[in-house]
Design goal:
single chain, mainly beta, seven-stranded mixed β-sheet, four-stranded antiparallel β-sheet, about 0% helix
Amino acid sequence: QVQLVESGGGLVQAGGSLRLSCAASGRTFSGSSMGWFRQALGKEREFVAAINWIGSSTYYADSVKGRFTISRDNAKNTVYLQMNGLNPEDTAVYYCGVVRTWPSRASDNWGQGTQVTVSS
């Protein structure tokens, strides 16, 4: 099972940027599609972005398309989420996950998440 540790969250003003990182351990990382998901207070966890195992294909939720970019470095076992043009609706705990069914269904294996708070 892949173990996941997210980092890079914080407090940012609307219009600002953050870069999230997800460090993964486990020999299956480089062969797995990975995704970012988020959960706002009182809401269900939702899909944000996904990237295939080699990084040649990506997929985004409509709400973040054009603002967020997912990438990965298999040599470092790390997935990134560059978030630009943040708005208060992006406030949530962000999690990375292994994508079991492309593009947006994750396995039930989560890290602790990283909090992103966007002030208006």
